[in-house]
Amino acid sequence: MPHPLDAAAVRSWCGLALEALGRERERIDAINVYPVADGDTGTNLYLTLESAARAVEAAFDGHSSAGTAPCLADAIGAMAHGALIGARGNSGTIVAQLLRGMTEVLAAGDGSAGALRRALRRAAASTYEAVAHPVEGTVLTVATAAADAAEQAAAGAAGGLGAAEVARAAHEGARTALQATPGQLAVLGRAGVVDAGGCGLVALLGALADALSGEVSATPVAVRADAPLPEAAGCEAVGGPAADGCGDPDGPAFEVIYLLEAGDAAVARLRTRLDTLGDSLVVVGGDGLWNVHVHVDDAGAAVEAGIEAGRPYRVRITHFGAVTRSEEPAMTARAVVVVVPGAGLAGLCAEAGATPVAVRPGEPPASGELVQAIRQAHAREVMLLPNDAELRHTAAAAAEQARTEGVRVALIPTRSAVQGLAALAVHEPGRSFDEDVVAMTAAAGATRYAELAVAERQSWTMAGICQAGDVLGLIDGDVAVIGSDLLHTATTVLDRMLSAGGEMVTLVLGADVPDTLAERLERHVRERHLAVDTVVYEGGQHAAPLLIGVE
User: How far apart are CA 343 and CA 494, in angstroms?
Assistant: First the structure.
């Protein structure tokens, strides 16, 4: 029995889409050859929809607590927002924009067949706006075909169609278009597969049709090409050798993704800047919150561009390693996955060859996020650096899960980002795994750590009573100094730490910290502590104005 397009239908759609992508995930991963053959499109789409489904459930829970029921605008808006903040990879980011485009139409509260047709058209158009260099034969083409099919079906129906019939027509149009993608994009034709992102969209639209019709089809998506690549197809047929992923077997080394709080003007400048740095640029979102995705060789520059535009967080940087645009992902011998508290540190660790997981204050990563980072490292052996004592159990669970998948994982017990930097500095892939683990663990253990924080309220501490606004100096996790300003507190902390000896001081500056602070602290160390070197990094973390390490 057909169901109206309302909040309940959106909730059902999320559940069915998650089930469909769960079934198709491995098959979609296996055919992922564009724009980079990193074998994770199905997984990324699943994680994106998982975030969307969580947001919808949260919306229903919130209304239930208030004794109300969500409307269509509430549900579709939550789905789009959840996809935006949880988008993974190129295809996940594009799907988040598709949902945002649909929301722009459906948020008016009209769940009619006509509104759904307009929503599908707006969704397709919005993806072309988000992608810097659109390429046909991809999810963009499939989305456009779905919108076309919905409109054609409505035009040919004498008595008019319901929303369920519009959704089913869009699904069938997408299925047909998907089978044509190998003839539009050369890399797909050579591999004999259809577009992986398009596969995910077909599954998503099939779930929508099932939710509205009340008839669950669960038909597998065809992933192999029906016919060989026509001779006319090739890089020239899809935009020339400069088209993203065409004719460029040695593409950028990193995938960089982050959420960004910024205004429209700043994002426009960011698009221009990132477009000069790499390819596969997709920027989606609006109303001050954006999801940025790009493939670059200089991951640090991509993150720095985000810092200049606004406030980036949840930074994810993946090193493609030996992956090329026409091969299956190659496993490297060893990799390092490191949790860091700021965008600057994420870029620094990525440039050192690690896979960073950047976190925002109060939003620690779940074990599943760490497992995904381990998978994306594409390595047989992985060192996992949690850099936070409170993440010990989460990291241990992630390591255990990765081991069941055949990855040898060592958990380096780092309790601070500065310990992680010390461990990363001695990482040497050329020696044995066990020797590398011992060396990294020893380097972390030999590094005393401290941080500065600002008290939010009056509280008892190991150093006495602090008041709201006081600057706290924490050494090895305990409050040791209470001060009135950053400089005085930092120098007191440094003197206490160096009183026990030390050869190297590491300073990691947080966001909005004055540039003069580092200069004055360096001078203090130079004048008060002979033969002690100081190195300074821009960390960009928001929770702590300053991180300090002494080796």
Answer: 25
- State pTM to two decimals: 0.68
**How large is the C-alpha radius of gyration of the chain?**
25
Q: In this structure, are residues 55 and 18 in contact, taking their beta carbons and an 8 Å threshold?
A: no
Portion of the chain with pLDDT greater than 70, in percent? 91
CA-angle at 25, arms to 24 and 30, nearest 5°: 100
Q: What is the pLDDT of residue 302?
A: 87
Task: Name the nearest CA neighbour of 257 among 222, 216, 285, 220.
Answer: 285
Q: What is the pLDDT of residue 240?
A: 30
pLDDT value at residue 330? 53
- Distance between CA 306 and CA 313 in Å, rounded? 9
E-assigned strands of 6-159?
none
Q: Which long-range contacts (CB under 8 A, 24 or more apart) does 284-289 make?
A: 284/84, 284/87, 284/93, 284/94, 284/96, 284/97, 284/100, 284/130, 285/84, 285/96, 285/97, 285/100, 285/260, 286/100, 288/261, 288/262, 288/263, 289/84, 289/85, 289/259, 289/260, 289/261
CA distances from 17 to 7, 10, 53, 350, 468 (A): 15, 10, 9, 33, 47
> How far is it, in rounded angstroms, from Cα 168 to Cα 468?
59
Lowest mean pLDDT among 124-128, 314-318, 402-406: 314-318
What are the structure tokens assigned to 450, written together? 């401290």
Determine the pLDDT at residue 218: 64
Question: Which are the contacts of 514, defined by CB distance < 8 A and separation ≥ 6?
Answer: none
* 315 secondary structure, DSSP code: E
Q: Around 40, how many Cα atoms within 13 Å sit in the side-chain half-sphere?
A: 24
Using alpha carbons, select from 265, 536, 288 the residue that is nearest to residue 421: 536
Over residues 59-93, the pLDDT tens digits come to 999 888 888 989 999 999 999 999 999 998 899 99
> What gap in Å lies between CA 72 and CA 107, rounded to an integer?
7
Residue 113 and residue 160 in contact, taking contact as beta carbons nearer than 8 Å: yes
Residues 6+ apart with CB under 8 A from 99: 52, 76, 79, 80, 83, 84, 123
Count CB-CB contacts under 10 A for residue 68.
10
**Token pair belonging to 42:** 């199905």
User: What tens digit of pLDDT does each residue of 440-483 get?
Assistant: 999 999 999 999 999 989 989 888 999 999 999 999 989 999 99
For the chain, give the number of residues: 551
Mean local confidence (pLDDT), 313-328: 60
